[in-house]
């Protein structure tokens, strides 16, 4: 496993966001389609079902060549339970602001988790 | 934790700027769309990330070789990992390769051309295969021809493209340059060869319907001829060359090229802004690792 990652010269970043954000990330060189036509991004629009998003997220989380999953807050809200169930450090899940809504720390699952722990102390 | 929120604010700013540049670029590109239809189906990531473990942890599944950018990052507390950006250089394509790619791009863009490229690719595979073993290649050609003659045109193309891509992995980049030059010269011979191969495959399989379609297809676009030229070159010189040109398509290309040859400066700005966004994201991920409870 570790050897495989080393050969690749680095691990990938996965992105689940709206089309424009993904276009931007792909411009930056983040996008990858491997031999099995597996992509490391998912364009989420108004027609995408929560189930599809959930499935994509689980797939990314299961892959061993993805180090970080970037997910826009809007999309994260749709699969909040799956994100909170994700416990492993790799791949790391990071919420990024959506195109339309500004970043809201109250929604970020990472911060809410920390607040729980800090708050009850 | 304060750091995390600050970084998030910074990320938001950068993201906003990036999206603005993208919108500006879209506006200045007028009619040409900028969206997921333009994505390259064979894209390869050039921006990856190295995960380096903190001082305490052993060889976790995420640890990687110390890349050039990895050193700065590994100073965290024991057990925590840090993420750094690692860029893979994009090999600058020779001028001919760019033209060939543009040609390929046009062929792929045209709907009708798709099936012909599949046949061309299959024929190329067949031609290459004849050097090795007629059975396998003939099987592939037939399969491709059948796929083409049937309704699943795109399916066939994907299969052969997938096969090609898989083959290419073993290849040398150096071959590609010689190949480009020879391409032009052998264009016509290649087309004739293609037609012959198609006829043979079809005669073996069915009647004239496919032949008619392939004939029309062959005339349809020069780029297919270019691919046929590859086939020719390969038969002449061995498998290596053909795979070389295909390799050019699979080697990492600048994503800016997906949107045309002359891209508006706003798009370039968007690209650099999003590169900054990626950096910030990885810093955030590193910070998040510190903030989160140890897992």
UniProtKB/TrEMBL annotation, chain A:
GO CC annotations, alphabetized: proton-transporting V-type ATPase, V1 domain
Keyword Ion transport attributed: yes
Oligomeric and partner information: V-ATPase is a heteromultimeric enzyme made up of two complexes: the ATP-hydrolytic V1 complex and the proton translocation V0 complex.
Keywords: Hydrogen ion transport, Ion transport, Transport
UniProt-recorded name of the protein: V-type proton ATPase subunit F
Signal peptide per UniProt: none
Family: Belongs to the V-ATPase F subunit family.
Gene Ontology molecular function: any one: proton-transporting ATPase activity, rotational mechanism
InterPro entries in the cross-refs: ATPase_V1-cplx_f_g_su, ATPase_V1-cplx_fsu_euk, ATPase_V1_fsu_sf
NCBIfam families to which the protein is assigned, alphabetical: V_ATP_synt_F
Automatic annotation (TrEMBL), chain B:
Stored InterPro entries: Vma22/CCDC115 (IPR040357)
GO MF annotation terms: unfolded protein binding
Coiled coil: 164-207
Region (Disordered): 48-79, 96-116, 129-161, 208-251
Bias type Low complexity, positions: 62-74, 137-148
Signal sequence range: none
Pfam families cross-referenced by the UniProt entry: Vma22_CCDC115
GO biological process: vacuolar proton-transporting V-type ATPase complex assembly
Keywords in alphabetical order: Coiled coil
Organism domain of life: Eukaryota
UniProt xrefs under PANTHER family: COILED-COIL DOMAIN-CONTAINING PROTEIN 115
Name of the protein in question: Vacuolar ATPase assembly protein VMA22
Organism per entry: Chlamydomonas incerta
């Amino acid at each position: 496993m570790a050897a495989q990652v080393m050969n690749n010269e680095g691990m990938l970043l996965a992105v689940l966001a709206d089309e424009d954000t993904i276009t931007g990330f792909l411009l930056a060189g983040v996008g990858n389609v491997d031999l099995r036509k597996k992509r490391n991004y998912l364009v989420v629009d108004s027609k995408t079902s929560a189930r599809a998003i959930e499935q994509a997220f689980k797939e990314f989380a299961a892959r061993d060549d993805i180090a970080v999953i970037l997910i826009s807050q809007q999309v994260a809200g749709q699969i909040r339970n799956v994100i909170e169930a994700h416990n492993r450090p790799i791949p790391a899940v990071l919420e990024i602001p959506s195109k339309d809504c500004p970043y809201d720390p109250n929604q970020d699952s990472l911060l809410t988790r920390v607040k729980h722990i800090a708050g009850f102390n | 934790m304060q750091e995390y929120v600050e970084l998030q604010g910074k990320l938001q700013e950068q993201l906003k700027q990036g999206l603005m540049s993208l919108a500006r670029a879209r506006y200045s590109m007028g009619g040409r769309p900028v969206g997921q239809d333009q994505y390259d189906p064979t894209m390869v990531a050039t921006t990856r990330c190295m995960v380096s473990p903190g001082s305490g942890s052993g060889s976790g599944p995420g640890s990687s070789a110390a890349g050039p950018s990895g050193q700065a990052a590994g100073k965290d507390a024991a057990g925590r990992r840090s993420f750094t950006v690692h860029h893979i250089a994009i090999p600058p394509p020779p001028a001919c390769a760019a033209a060939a790619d543009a040609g390929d791009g046009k062929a792929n863009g045209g709907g009708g051309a798709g099936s012909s490229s599949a046949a061309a690719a299959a024929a190329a595979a067949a031609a290459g295969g004849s050097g090795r073993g007629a059975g396998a290649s003939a099987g592939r050609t037939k399969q491709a021809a059948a796929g083409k003659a049937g309704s699943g045109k795109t399916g066939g193309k994907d299969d052969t493209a997938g096969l090609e891509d898989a083959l290419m992995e073993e290849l040398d980049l150096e071959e590609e340059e010689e190949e480009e030059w020879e391409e032009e010269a052998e264009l016509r011979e290649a087309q004739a060869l293609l037609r012959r191969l198609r006829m043979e495959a079809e005669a073996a399989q069915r009647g004239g319907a496919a032949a008619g379609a392939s004939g029309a297809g062959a005339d349809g676009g020069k780029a297919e001829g270019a691919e046929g030229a590859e086939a020719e070159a390969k038969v002449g010189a061995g498998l290596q060359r053909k795979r070389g040109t295909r390799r050019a398509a699979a080697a990492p290309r600048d994503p800016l090229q997906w949107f045309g040859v002359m891209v508006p400066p706003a798009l370039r700005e968007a690209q650099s802004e999003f590169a900054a966004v990626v950096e910030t994201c990885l810093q955030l991920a590193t910070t998040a690792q510190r903030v989160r409870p140890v897992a």
